[in-house]
Specification:
With about 475 residues, this protein is of the alpha/beta class. About 40% of the residues lie in helices and about 15% in strands. It folds into 2 domains: about 80 residues, Outer Surface Protein A, domain 3, CATH 3.90.930; about 280 residues, Alpha-Beta Barrel (TIM Barrel), CATH 3.20.20. Helix 1 crosses helix 2.
Length: about 475
């Protein structure tokens, strides 16, 4: 590195924990543990946008020595922190890949549900409209639309959602079989999933789901004393026993999806219980309803973070001892960090995803059916490209001032669109409240520290990770 050359300093987040020093490079998602020399250089550069080697030598040479400064500068260059000042630079938030069509379809086959969860953002699957079912014919036509609009995508996704999709198995059967036929004909890989409350699972349905390789996610909020206060039947009975009995009786390898409310903040107890029940994977997500009885405030989120930290210990200890601990929130973060994946957007909404209502209207997000600003097309016309572009423009993190200086902005991608609409200001910009951003930053810091611990205790486990994770960067759940 030429000492007189002027360098641009890309945004970084240096931090210390348990006597160790780390650096996260904001725009590239690079992560490293630093020695004393590199730490001193990183600490000096953190508040600067431009620097020369002479400036850094002048500031630090008398304290740590010129050779140590040069070594630290070389490491900053290797990590992409220092780049030539005249080099054209396009940050990740300006590189959002937008392709025509879509590759992931969520079919809301049932606009109704047999449970009456108090916090349900979907109003028991009705999304502000009437209860009803998607016809098998509409489901098939929507699958046709997916494959017609998939362009050169080699992998397509179909997810069955609601409401409660098991209320409408004819539409599920018809759509899945059509998707399999079209995937075989077109030479594409098909991935299918179904999200259910689990109460209607039978041995016959389970056998069919298994035969068709459909990943099943079951919504369950923890032990009976927690779940049954939040997820009752219409007559007030708790649903826990029915769900656990169905999962165990059918033998399905199910994923548990937990919704966290202010009535259920003991995350460590909840996740450990569901792991003990036998779920293949467990993920949690804070609720967003606009209802103060359920939404978590700063104090509740602090309790959630206590549980996250405890589960991170479980996760790392299990890996270090040659086992696994299926907490999907942490695994998704570690995969993202390991891949060095900087996310300019939080998820595939408006990019790859189309969520279809029972009458064939298309929306950018499965949580926001019926919201005019999320409508991106229809069965008849496909994706409305101007509407899609408007959605992406209105929801781009670049339009959210708090994101501009946040070190976690390319881990988070700007925050869940649904949460921004529900929890954000009603008459202001679409953005996540600051207290929830604090929670997300704390969550990603836990992920960074867990990654560093695994790199020390079980580096071989990291080498076996999928290099291209596809998980949403938001807390997992529905």
């Amino acid at each position: 590195m030429v000492a007189t050359e002027r360098w641009a300093v890309r945004p970084i987040y240096p931090f210390e924990a348990d006597g160790r020093r780390y650096l996260f490079v904001v725009e590239s998602a690079a992560f490293a543990e630093l020695g004393e020399e590199s730490w001193a250089v990183a600490d000096f550069l953190a508040a600067r946008k431009r620097a020369t080697g002479l400036e850094v030598l002048g500031a630090l040479g008398s304290r740590i020595g010129d050779d140590a400064v040069r070594s630290g500068l070389d490491e900053m260059s290797r990590l992409g922190v220092l780049v030539p000042a005249d080099l054209p630079w396009m940050p990740p938030d300006a590189r959002v890949p937008v392709r025509t069509g879509f590759g992931s379809l969520t079919l809301h086959v049932a606009h109704d549900c047999n449970l009456r969860c108090g916090y349900c953002y979907a109003e028991y699957g009705r999304y502000g409209g009437e209860a009803g079912m998607m016809s098998p014919e509409t489901a098939v036509l929507l699958v046709d639309r997916l494959f017609d609009d998939a362009a050169d995508r080699r992998v397509v996704h179909v997810t069955f959602f609601g409401g409660e999709p098991l209320l409408n198995m004819p539409a599920v059967y018809a759509a899945a079989e059509r998707a399999e036929s079209l995937a075989k004909k077109s030479g594409r890989e098909l991935r299918m999933g179904l999200t259910t409350n689990g109460t209607l699972l039978t041995s016959e349905i389970a056998a069919w789901l298994r035969e068709h390789h459909i990943t099943v996610s079951v919504s369950l909020d923890g032990p009976a004393d927690v779940n049954d206060r939040l997820r009752p039947y219409a007559d007030g009975r708790g649903s826990y026993e029915a769900v656990v009995d169905a999962v165990r009786r059918t033998g399905l390898r199910c994923v548990a999806r937990v919704t966290l409310t202010r009535r259920s903040t003991d995350v460590a107890r909840i996740v450990r219980h569901l792991v003990d029940v036998g779920f293949h994977e467990v993920g949690v997500a804070p609720v967003a309803t606009g209802d103060a009885r359920y939404d978590l405030g700063p104090a509740h989120l602090e309790k959630v973070l206590v549980g996250y930290r405890a589960l991170a210990v479980d996760f790392v200890d299990a890996i270090a001892n040659g086992r696994s601990f299926p907490f999907s929130n942490l695994r998704a973060m570690i995969e993202q960090i390991h891949a060095g994946e900087a996310r300019p957007m939080p998820c595939g909404a408006g990019l790859e995803l189309a969520a279809a209502s029972m009458d064939g209207e298309l929306y950018a997000c499965h949580r926001m059916l019926g919201a005019p600003s999320f409508r991106t097309g229809s069965l008849a016309s496909g994706i409305d490209e101007p509407a899609r572009w408007k959605f992406l423009s209105d929801h781009h993190p670049r339009n959210r001032p708090p994101c501009e200086t946040c070190w976690a902005r390319f881990l988070c991608g700007g925050g869940c669109h649904h949460m921004a609409h529900v929890l954000g200001p009603k008459d202001g910009p679409v953005e996540i409240p600051e207290f929830f951003c604090d929670f997300l930053r704390a969550q990603f810091r836990i992920g960074l520290l867990a990654y560093a611990e695994i790199a020390t205790r079980a580096p071989g486990w990291l080498d076996r990770l999928d290099p291209a994770p596809t998980a949403c960067s938001q807390p997992v759940g529905f």
